[in-house]
Amino acid sequence: MPSLSSFADPRTYHVLSYGTLLGSTIFQSFIGGVVAFKALPRPQFSTLQQAIFPIFFSMQTALPVVLALTYPGEKAAGIGSLLRTNEGFGGLLAEQNRWSVMVPVATMFVTSLANLVAVGPATTRVMRERKHQETRDGKKSYDAAPHSKEMQRLNRSFSRLHGASSLLNVAGLLAMVWYGVTLSERL
Question: First CA to last CA across the chain, in angstroms?
Answer without folding.
Answer: 18
